[in-house]
């Protein structure tokens, strides 16, 4: 399709398609154009304003100005706005899903599910903000009283990824706003339209000027914007979801100002199936975890460890399910697996499959790029006979490839699962309650899914350990990331 012709989807509410950034309650042009394309066919969608340091500083100034009044509002008032925003997302779910599918590629059904997931964080923190309780501590000295207060940290910044372009915004922004912070968001350059539609609905929900900013940026500008926010003393918290390499860089840039950090970084999730597992449940969990969003999730299973006694049966059933997956553009009815996000992602998936096959792995299903569908499509793939020395067992693939390794003992499975620098998500299937407790305790991961392939939820904390980052999003723990503790000591009370 021509670069001058837009392939934007038809919407019920065309005003959701915003192409300027949101700064101080106004839609503001940028310093350079950001061109957005559909990964399914490469078609041009829109030219969005890309923002640089000047606009990022303006957003920061507005956030500082808006902070005192926003922090002074009652938690109830802030919660009411979050609730209205959540309802606005749900009321516009069809349009939001169409925008998301167009620029990100995921099937419409998954995009609609993400809208509901995004709204759930707004719902949760609309209530959780009202439960930010302090403490009264009994003092050893009868002439003193101690109070422990929780107060908003201040201005916050968030850098969000392309794979969940709506939910990752609300998961970061909702607790910050509920706590009384103001927030600036830099969405991924691949998916700014979803972020801007989300911002439009935030304005309709009544968020005051300066409380929320959304600044799309080109890849080059993103580096400068991120550096500005990291180094600015006025920014007291930075949240980032993305690669471990970028997370390390951001942490180093934030170090001089000692700001709070929430880093949700790379994963390399093991998926363990023990002999005593419910086979049907294990296969269903594998499909749920591995192939959602074409395998482009930070918590999707990457390494499948299957015990010898159940290995062959598991592989046969999984192979049938994988072969039956419908691949194609996300807008088409019945599609279950859409395109990869870009050529770099496709090249990595192809390299992992080629390396495994060259070292003796067996290709049970898929394994080929689907150029007939579009440049970024790769078949849902199942590899067996995988060994620990293959790239697919060492690196995060971030694509629709399941790599199966056989193991003999529980101790061996735990050792293999933990043999990585990452520690985000892990999964295992077993009906032995003793094993459930032992393995859950032994896995070195921030999250463990037992007999399920879906672990994300607004009411539970989400995050990793080791090189997968630190800090938590979701749950009541998520709002603590945006609160400072203040100890207040009142003396001279004895008479």
Automatic annotation (TrEMBL):
<dbReference type="InterPro" id="IPR016161">
    <property type="entry name" value="Ald_DH/histidinol_DH"/>
</dbReference>
<dbReference type="GO" id="GO:0102810">
    <property type="term" value="F:glutarate-semialdehyde dehydrogenase (NADP+) activity"/>
</dbReference>
<dbReference type="InterPro" id="IPR016160">
    <property type="entry name" value="Ald_DH_CS_CYS"/>
</dbReference>
<protein>
    <submittedName>
        <fullName>Succinate-semialdehyde dehydrogenase/glutarate-semialdehyde dehydrogenase</fullName>
        <ecNumber>1.2.1.16</ecNumber>
        <ecNumber>1.2.1.20</ecNumber>
        <ecNumber>1.2.1.79</ecNumber>
    </submittedName>
</protein>
<dbReference type="InterPro" id="IPR010102">
    <property type="entry name" value="Succ_semiAld_DH"/>
</dbReference>
<dbReference type="GO" id="GO:0005829">
    <property type="term" value="C:cytosol"/>
</dbReference>
<dbReference type="InterPro" id="IPR016162">
    <property type="entry name" value="Ald_DH_N"/>
</dbReference>
<dbReference type="Pfam" id="PF00171">
    <property type="entry name" value="Aldedh"/>
</dbReference>
<dbReference type="InterPro" id="IPR050740">
    <property type="entry name" value="Aldehyde_DH_Superfamily"/>
</dbReference>
<keyword id="KW-0560">Oxidoreductase</keyword>
<dbReference type="GO" id="GO:0009450">
    <property type="term" value="P:gamma-aminobutyric acid catabolic process"/>
</dbReference>
<dbReference type="InterPro" id="IPR015590">
    <property type="entry name" value="Aldehyde_DH_dom"/>
</dbReference>
<dbReference type="InterPro" id="IPR016163">
    <property type="entry name" value="Ald_DH_C"/>
</dbReference>
<feature type="domain" description="Aldehyde dehydrogenase">
    <location>
        <begin position="27"/>
        <end position="488"/>
    </location>
</feature>
<dbReference type="GO" id="GO:0004777">
    <property type="term" value="F:succinate-semialdehyde dehydrogenase (NAD+) activity"/>
</dbReference>
<dbReference type="GO" id="GO:0036243">
    <property type="term" value="F:succinate-semialdehyde dehydrogenase (NADP+) activity"/>
</dbReference>
<comment type="similarity">
    <text>Belongs to the aldehyde dehydrogenase family.</text>
</comment>
């Amino acid at each position: 399709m021509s670069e001058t012709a837009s392939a934007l989807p038809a919407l019920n509410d065309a005003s959701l398609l915003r192409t300027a950034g949101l700064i101080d309650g106004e839609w503001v042009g940028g310093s350079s154009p950001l061109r957005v394309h559909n990964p399914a066919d490469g078609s041009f969608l829109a030219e969005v304003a890309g923002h640089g340091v000047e606009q990022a500083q303006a957003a920061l100034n507005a956030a500082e100005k808006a902070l005192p009044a926003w922090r002074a509002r009652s938690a109830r008032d802030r919660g009411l706005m979050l609730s209205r925003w959540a309802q606005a997302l749900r009321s516009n779910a069809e349009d939001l899903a169409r925008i998301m599918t167009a620029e990100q590629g995921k099937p419409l059904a998954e995009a609609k599910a993400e809208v509901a997931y995004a709204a759930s964080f707004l719902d949760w923190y609309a209530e959780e903000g009202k439960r930010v309780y302090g403490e009264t501590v009994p003092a050893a000295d009868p002439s003193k009283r101690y109070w422990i207060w929780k107060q908003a940290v201040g201005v916050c910044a968030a850098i969000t990824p392309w794979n969940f372009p709506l939910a990752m915004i609300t998961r970061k922004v909702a607790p910050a706003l509920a706590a009384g912070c103001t927030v600036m968001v830099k969405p991924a350059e691949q998916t700014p339209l979803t972020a801007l539609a989300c911002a439009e609905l935030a304005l309709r929900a009544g968020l005051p000027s300066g409380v929320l900013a959304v600044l799309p940026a080109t890849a080059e500008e993103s580096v400068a914007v991120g550096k500005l926010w990291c180094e600015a003393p006025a920014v007291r918290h930075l949240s980032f979801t993305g690669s471990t390499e970028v997370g390390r860089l951001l942490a180093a840039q934030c170090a001089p100002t000692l700001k709070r950090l929430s880093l949700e970084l790379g994963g390399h999730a093991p998926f363990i199936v023990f002999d005593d597992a419910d086979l049907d449940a294990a296969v269903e969990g594998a499909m749920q975890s591995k192939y959602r969003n074409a395998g482009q999730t930070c918590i999707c299973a990457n390494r499948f460890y299957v015990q010898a006694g159940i290995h062959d049966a598991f592989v046969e059933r999984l192979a049938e399910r994988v072969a039956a997956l419908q691949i194609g553009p996300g807008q088409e009815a019945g599609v279950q697996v859409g395109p990869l996000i870009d050529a770099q992602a496709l090249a990595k998936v192809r390299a992992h499959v080629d390396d495994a096959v060259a070292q003796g792995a067996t290709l049970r299903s898929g394994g080929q790029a689907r150029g007939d569908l579009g440049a970024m499509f790769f078949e849902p793939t199942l590899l067996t006979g995988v060994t620990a020395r293959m790239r697919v067992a060492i690196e995060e693939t971030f694509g629709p490839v399941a790599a199966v390794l056989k193991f003999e003992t529980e101790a061996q499975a735990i050792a293999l699962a933990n043999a990585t620098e990452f520690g985000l998500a892990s999964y295992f299937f077993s009906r032995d309650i003793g094993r459930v407790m032992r393995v859950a305790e032994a896995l070195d991961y921030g999250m463990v899914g037992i007999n399920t392939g879906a672990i994300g939820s607004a009411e539970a904390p989400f995050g990793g350990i080791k090189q997968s980052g630190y800090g938590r999003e979701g749950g009541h723990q998520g709002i603590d990331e945006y609160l400072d503790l203040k100890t207040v000591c009142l003396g001279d009370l004895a008479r």
